[in-house]
């Protein structure tokens, strides 16, 4: 899961030529973004569009046994607005995070093994929920700001925060599983995108390039360097492959809090000047698109989709900055 930054993007239905532009600057649409939007529409072409995902029926929240330790938002849905005084973790917190992140990777591997045509995303949520609890962990997404499920399942043009429901996966879909566990008082967060059966060449390439973007972002992690080195590496590879990088969602600091104040942009942001230091833990989770990076959000307040309907993929690890470079924590 990731944070949202304030980014103005074109709506699903564009204004008429003489209407105010969607960007909010007061200029008529025809004199502002109309030309740029038309160029983007020509660039996209029909091959970048998926069949279109629609909301399904969402089952009730799953329950967690009373003996499982809970984060502060488990009952209220409201995490405390208290951030750690430093992003540098103590050896004790790091040791606990290693165990939590390993558990998250295990839940991911087991849940992903069930991805196939015909299974519903709600069934995948049930599998993951059981695996969290088996390990003594709480599903971090469950009731976080009211999120109703234990994992996020984002299919085709869904960028992130897709809510598991009764829609069955279909041959040729791609699905991202975003899994986070709260264990021993800390969170471990990872995600990955999987093909459902046989997928088309563009989707196969999208998944491959997105995984490469994640690994290049991780390779850019070095103590003494600014955070924006990560986005610079990711954006360069995505652009080289003719793909977009979603900007409205980013990686984040993580540990005893699900999200800390630290943000990790996946594009080059000159303002992201925080210096990486040993002991920092954060997620890198690029969301890469076959079309433009603009997004919109469904009425459920969670499901983010590409504004142009193009497919998108995401991969994520929780990492630790070390004296030598980086450790990937979310490995089984």
Can you walk through the features of this model?
The protein is of the alpha+beta class and 332 residues long. It has a single domain (45-328), classed as Creatinase/methionine aminopeptidase superfamily (Creatine Amidinohydrolase), CATH 3.90.230.10. Helix content is 24%, strand content 19%. The chain contains five helices and 16 strands. The strands form five sheets. Strands 2, 3, 5 and 6 form a four-stranded antiparallel β-sheet that branches. A hairpin with a 2-residue loop joins strand 5 (174-183) and strand 6 (186-195). The longest helix has 22 residues, at 91-112. The protein is globular, with a radius of gyration of 19 Å. The chain starts with a strand and ends with a strand.
CATH superfamily: Creatinase/methionine aminopeptidase superfamily
The total of helices stands at 5
Please mark out the parts with pLDDT under 50 across 5 or more consecutive residues, or reply none.
4-9, 42-50
Number of domains: 1
Q: For the CA atoms, what is the radius of gyration?
A: 19 Å
Largest sheet: 4 strands, antiparallel
User: Which bin fits the share of residues in helices?
Assistant: 10-25%
């Amino acid at each position: 899961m990731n944070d949202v930054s304030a980014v103005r993007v074109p709506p699903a239905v564009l204004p008429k030529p003489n209407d105010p532009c969607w960007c909010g600057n007061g200029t008529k649409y025809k004199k502002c973004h109309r030309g740029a939007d038309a160029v983007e529409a020509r660039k996209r072409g029909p091959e970048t569009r998926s069949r279109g995902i629609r909301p399904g029926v969402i089952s009730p929240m799953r329950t967690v046994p009373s003996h499982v330790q809970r984060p502060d938002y488990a009952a209220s849905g409201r995490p405390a607005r208290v951030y750690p005084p430093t992003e540098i973790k103590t050896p004790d917190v790091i040791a606990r995070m290693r165990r939590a992140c390993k558990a998250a990777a295990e839940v991911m591997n087991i849940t992903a093994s069930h991805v196939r045509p015909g299974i519903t995303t709600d069934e995948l949520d049930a599998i993951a929920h059981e695996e969290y609890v088996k390990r003594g962990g709480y599903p971090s997404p469950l009731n976080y700001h009211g999120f109703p499920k234990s994992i996020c399942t984002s299919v085709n043009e869904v960028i992130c925060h897709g809510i598991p429901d009764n829609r069955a996966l279909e041959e040729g879909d791609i699905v991202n599983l975003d899994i986070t566990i709260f264990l021993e008082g800390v969170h471990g967060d990872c995600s990955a995108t999987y093909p459902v059966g046989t997928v088309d060449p563009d989707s196969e390439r999208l998944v491959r390039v997105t995984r490469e973007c994640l690994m290049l972002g991780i390779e850019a992690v070095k103590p003494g360097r600014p955070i924006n080195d990560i986005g610079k590496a990711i954006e360069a590879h995505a652009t080289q492959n003719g793909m977009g990088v979603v900007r409205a969602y980013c990686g984040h600091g993580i540990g005893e809090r699900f999200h800390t104040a630290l943000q990790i942009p996946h594009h080059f942001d000159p303002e992201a000047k925080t210096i990486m230091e040993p002991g920092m833990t954060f997620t890198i989770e690029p969301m890469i698109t076959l079309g433009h990076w603009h997004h919109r959000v469904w009425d459920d307040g969670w499901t983010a989709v590409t504004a142009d309907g193009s497919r998108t993929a995401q991969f994520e690890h929780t990492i630790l900055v070390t004296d030598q470079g980086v450790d990937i924590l979310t490995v089984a």
